[in-house]
Amino acid sequence: METVLQTNMAAAAPNRGKVRDIYDLGDKLLIVATDRISAFDVVMANGIPYKGIILTQISKFWFDFLTGIVEHHLISDDVADFPEPFCSNADQLKGRSMLVKKGEVLPVECVVRGYLAGSGWKEYSAEGTVCGQKLPDGLKQCQKLPELLFTPATKAEMGTHDENITFERCVDIIGAESAQYVRDRSIEIFTKAADYAESRGIILADTKFEWGVVDGKIILIDEVLTPDSSRFWPAEKYEPGRDQESFDKQFVRNYLESINFDKSGSGVELPEDIRQKTSAKYIEAYEKLTGKDFEASA
User: Fold this and answer.
1) What CATH number is associated with residue 126?
2) Is the pLDDT reported for residue 298 higher than 60?
3) Which residues contact 58 (CB under 8 A, 6 or more apart)?
4) Contacts of 147 (CB under 8 A, 6+ apart)
5) What φ, ψ does residue 9 adopt, rounded to 5°?
6) Three-state SS string across the chain, please?
7) What percentage of the chain carries pLDDT values higher than 90?
8) Closest Cα to residue 15, out of 23, 7, 4?
9) Residue 188 domain boundaries
10) CA–CA distance from 115 to each of 86, 97, 203 (Å)?
11) How many domains, in total, are found in the chain?
12) Nearest Cα to 114, choosing from 88, 151, 61?
């Protein structure tokens, strides 16, 4: 399987993020998920087979799931609905692209945490807090939190790390009404998604949502509840007090740690076995969440 590391259309050069190529169509955007993969905020030299298709199809699944619950930006993922020249480039775009509403992106990432993992566990171990919020003593690594935590972060430029902020700082940045809205809706969506994921044998440990303003209304944007934006754990293997197996790029992170990767440098060429194992995890997440067999021609 050839990986798609970037797309090139005749219309205009896209804005390239770590994973996505974004084409500005005026009042709409075309978002293309490539097979690029980043770890420690560095994009690797080669990609992960099928990754962009899987990310797009998982987001599409959740947008469908959330229809009627929250307004979102997805217009269509059918290449035939795209304007020229994009509708004539199905070979590059099929399965990995979405035509979406264009709006003003709120400059905060809305992180919801259900379990004590990642940077939250590191902070708790040192300070007894997560993003400044005091937690009970004696919690274990990856233990379920007494209640969901909303821990916003500022959006970092590529190559730098997001910075956790307090809710009060979030209010300063986007205003009290908007901050309360995205906090409450993020927690509501997380709760519904976590309940569904649990029914599929998956624990949703944490995730991040992004929101934007379209026609004066705050709507859900970007990717939603994918292995790139969330921690998904297999429920049957869950055990607090240790790291968990996960449906994400942990194979890539582990490999980079094993070679003492310079996290401030450029990406490296990933070995084939790491690429295939990581691809298999993404596919497994898709199949468990949707109940469908993965087809590369989605």
Assistant:
1) 3.30.470.20
2) no
3) 223, 225, 226, 227, 285, 286, 289, 290
4) none
5) -110, 155
6) CCCCCCCCCCCCCCEECCCEEEEECCCEEEEEECCCCEECCEECCCCCCCHHHHHHHHHHHHHHHHCCCCCECEEECCHHHCCCCHHHCHHHHCCCEEEEECCEECCEEEEEEEECCHHHHHHHHHHCEECCEECCCCCCCCCEEEEEEECCEECCCCCCCCEECCHHHHHHHHCHHHHHHHHHHHHHHHHHHHHHHHHCCEEEEEEEEEEEEECCEEEEECCCCCCCCEEEEEHHHCCCCCCCCCCCCHHHHHHHHHCCCCCCCCCCCCCHHHHHHHHHHHHHHHHHHHCCCCCCCC
7) 86
8) 23
9) 105-237
10) 41, 31, 9
11) 1
12) 151
Does pTM top 0.85 for this prediction?
yes
How would you class 29 by CB atoms within 10 Å of its CB: exposed for 0-12, middle for 13-18, buried for 19 or more? buried
Per-residue pLDDT tens digits for 209-261: 999 999 999 999 999 999 999 999 999 999 999 999 999 888 898 999 999 99
The rounded distance, in Å, linking the Cα atoms of 42 and 20 is: 14
Q: Are 54 and 42 in contact (CB under 8 A)?
A: no
Cα gap 111→127, rounded to integer Å: 20
State pLDDT tens for residues 230-244: 999 999 999 999 999
The answer to whether residue 24 sits within a structural domain is: no
Asked whether residue 156 is domain-assigned, the answer is yes
- Distance separating alpha carbons of residues 107 and 225, to the nearest angstrom: 19
Question: Considering the domain boundaries, does residue 277 fall inside one?
Answer: no
User: What does the block give as tokens for 199?
Assistant: 């029914």
Inside any domain, residue 252 = no
